[in-house]
Design goal:
This protein has helices spanning about 5-20, 25-75, 85-90. Helices cover about 80% and strands about 0% of the residues.
Length: about 100
Amino acid sequence: MNLSPEERRALSAIETRLATEEPELDALLAGSRRRRLKSRSTLHVWCMLMLLTCAIFMLGVALLLATREKDCQDGRLDSCESAADVREAAAQATGPFRR
């Protein structure tokens, strides 16, 4: 909301009079503004840290999956099984759950 020049002068006069007549109240009011700004900036820092943590975690998962796929393609991992191998092993399985 924009103030007219008259309103700005009146507000400035009120602020000046408050500072001279009630310095404790003026300091208290000024401190609450600072505290509010500080709490907002702290909240912003925490939010940014959480976003950064999530981004690093997602990057780590992506790298883990990418290197696992590469190792499977190179044949360096014994635990890599293709879908065909899994189906074949399931078809050869014996036991009470065999279809």
